[in-house]
Specification:
single chain; alpha+beta; Immunoglobulin-like; four-stranded mixed sheet; 11 strands
Length: 247
């Protein structure tokens, strides 16, 4: 006797039950997955704003790497300058006291595509303002509470320098003698330039952080004067460096 062959397909009722279970699972799992994706994008954006900021000004913490700002003498006009020099001069040490000046990037990894670094975890373009890197956050609306900004407050990036000139005359120390000036060399758009203070107290304000050459020049000689002392000095953001130059 032949057995009746069983049809192993699903009945309509079974299909309805399976679809119902899948719908319940989707309702439970989808919000959780979306939350996880959103949290990952937030974290990636926070990390990237930090990386971009360090590419502009350096890692801080007492180091001597001041990144783009130290090499060029200003913050980037746009994020592209961290990866492409444009018209900025190339890095060189053919300067006073061989202080390196000029573009020596890229200062940041561009990512898996040439423009990855320009956009946040939500695919929106970063903006720069007052030394801060800003993302519009999950809602894509600028200047509200869900914006992601690093650093949280506008940083104080510029510093200052006070120089005391000293010499020994007749066995005695003379402080800030007459007829001397102090020259400070620094980067301006990636090229070396200088500023002079012709009389004590020798003081320079609004100096970008980085390594700078400083020299003392005797001015009562004919021509450009005679260099009698020189040094290299690190200027740090938000502070004034005090230096003594002896001759």
């Amino acid at each position: 006797m032949l057995e009746a062959r069983r049809d192993w397909g699903f009945s309509l009722i079974e299909l309805v039950v399976i679809l119902g279970v899948l719908a319940i699972l989707a309702a439970v799992v989808t919000p959780s997955m979306m939350q996880q994706v959103g949290a990952t994008r937030l974290e990636a954006t926070r990390d990237e704003t930090h990386v971009l900021y360090e590419a502009m000004v350096g890692p801080g913490a007492g180091g001597t790497n001041f990144a783009f700002l130290g090499d060029i003498g200003r913050l980037p006009n746009n994020l592209q300058e961290l990866v492409q020099p444009g018209t900025l001069p190339s890095y060189t040490t053919a300067t006073t006291r061989n202080v390196g000046i000029g573009w020596r990037g890229p200062y940041v990894n561009a990512g898996t595509s040439p423009t990855d670094y320009l956009t946040d975890g939500f695919g929106r373009t970063y903006t720069l303002a007052m030394g801060q890197v800003r993302s519009t956050g999950p809602d894509g609306v600028a200047n509200n509470t869900d914006d992601i900004v690093y650093p949280p407050m506008p940083p104080t990036l510029m510093g200052g320098l006070n120089v005391t000139v000293k010499t020994i005359t007749g066995g005695k120390t003379v402080v800030d003698p007459a007829n001397y000036r102090v020259d400070l060399f620094y980067a301006l758009n990636g090229a070396q330039t200088s500023v002079a203070d012709g009389g004590a107290p020798f003081s320079f304000a609004n100096v970008h952080p980085g390594l700078h050459a400083v020299r003392v020049v005797k001015t009562n000689n004919p021509g450009a004067g005679t260099v009698v002392a020189q040094d290299t000095i690190v200027i740090r953001p938000g502070s004034t460096t005090a230096s003594e130059l002896w001759f």
